[in-house]
Specification:
By secondary structure, this protein is α/β, with parallel strands linked by helices. It has two domains: 5-79, DNAb Helicase, Chain A; 109-365, Rossmann fold (3-Layer(aba) Sandwich). It is 45% helix and 14% strand. The chain has a nine-stranded mixed sheet with strand order 3-2-4-5-1-6-7-8-9, sandwiched between helices. Helix 2 (26-54) packs antiparallel against helix 3, helix 3 (60-75) packs parallel to helix 10 and helix 7 packs across helix 9 (197-208). 31% of the residues are buried.
Length: 375
């Protein structure tokens, strides 16, 4: 048609072809789009954070926490979900059911390491808040240490353990006692026999190579724990969070609130929100009220949860530890601990019995275990 010169000639057509995107470079273009999207979200987030910083009505800890959540959400798009059509959800649910049907021995959650307890709970589920409560001396810390050890050692789980009561050295000594079957008192005193040193060193090396991360900050706040969990999640990944124990935490008022019940309610809600945000199970230890000691039957009940009814409300599962030999010296249930599953949002409640070696602060499966399932 003689119009080639009018549009710029052959040279222009050559440039046009060269400048046209091709499928060959689709990955490169996708990375550009992704990078630009992240930068745009960062710019928007910076504006939101600036607004928070200028709001003098907000507490500085609250501002820091919200700012961290905004930044964390820049790369974690799943945290800020929109309404999802049921068709998309149904596909995921059916696929998950199909996977479990073809893998009947596969647990849905993080394993506890105890056969019958895992059978009842299906492991600890993502986004769940699990409360483990007992009177002092029942072995709360020992049980969650056993769970942390089992999850990290057998299943390569990444564990965040917040110990508000014991130092990190004391915790590691207990883990060594469990792993080596050497009395924890002897380890504390350094009374290790020469022939036991290879066992200790082998256990130490094994535990050192697990993904257990320990924080022993006393009176840690909700904000502190949330910040550290977000950072660990971003840097190493995270499968389960354990907190020992929630009554030693501080909430919005830094522990200065005269109404401790409101403070514990805030902590409980915040831990549930943390489990949802990171999509990991959060296991929080809790004290029980002294009302247990005034009854003839010392088995704990949900009403015994100390300082707040919201703990029961927020929890997806509530577990109690009861040891008859703690109260009755000549009982035939020596060294047996009953784990009472008093609340289980996803299924069965009942009792699982474990063997407890006090000198090793160690829980183990019983050869014959009892479960009473109630639906």
């Amino acid at each position: 048609r003689g119009q080639l010169a009018d549009v710029g000639g052959p040279a222009y057509l050559t440039d046009l072809v060269a400048g046209t995107p091709t499928a060959l470079y689709v990955d490169h273009y996708a990375r550009i789009v992704e990078r630009t999207a992240v930068l745009r979200r960062l710019i928007a987030s910076a504006g939101k954070i600036a607004e928070l910083a200028y709001d003098e009505s907000l507490d500085v800890d609250d501002v820091v926490d919200r700012a961290e959540q905004i930044i964390f959400g820049v790369t974690e798009s799943r945290i800020h979900r929109d309404l999802t059509p049921i068709r998309a959800i149904m596909t995921n649910v059916v696929d998950h059911i199909d996977f479990l049907s073809r893998n009947p021995d596969r647990l849905m959650g993080v394993p506890t390491g105890f056969t019958m307890l895992d059978r009842m709970l299906g492991g600890f589920q993502k986004s769940d808040l699990v409360i483990l409560a007992a009177r002092p001396g029942m072995g709360k810390s020992s049980l969650v240490l056993s769970i942390a050890q089992n999850a990290a050692k057998r299943h390569n789980a990444r564990v965040a353990f917040f110990s508000l009561e014991m130092s990190n050295e004391q915790m590691v000594q207990r883990l060594l006692s469990m792993e080596t079957a050497i009395d924890s008192h002897r380890l504390r005193m350094g009374a290790v026999h020469e022939e036991e040193w290879p066992i200790v060193l082998e256990a130490a090396n094994m535990l050192a190579n697990t993904s257990i991360f320990i924080d022993d900050t006393p009176a840690a706040s909700v904000t502190d724990i949330r910040t550290k969990c977000r950072r660990l999640y971003a840097e190493h990944g995270l499968d389960i969070v354990i907190i020992d124990y929630m009554q030693l935490m501080t909430g919005q008022s830094g522990g200065r609130n005269d109404n401790r019940q409101q403070e514990i309610s805030f902590i409980s809600r915040s831990l549930k929100a943390l489990a949802r945000e990171l999509n990991v199970p959060v296991i929080a230890l809790s004290q029980l009220s002294r009302a247990v000691e005034s009854r003839s039957d010392k088995r704990p009940m949900l009403s015994d949860l100390r300082e707040s009814g919201s703990i029961e409300q927020d929890a997806d599962a509530v577990l109690f530890i009861y040891r008859e030999d703690y109260y009755i010296e000549d009982t035939d249930r020596q060294n047996i601990a009953d784990i009472l599953v008093a609340k289980h949002r996803h299924g069965a409640t009942g009792t699982v019995s474990l063997f407890f070696r006090k000198e090793l602060t160690q829980f183990r499966d019983l050869e014959i275990q009892r479960t009473d399932l109630e639906y």
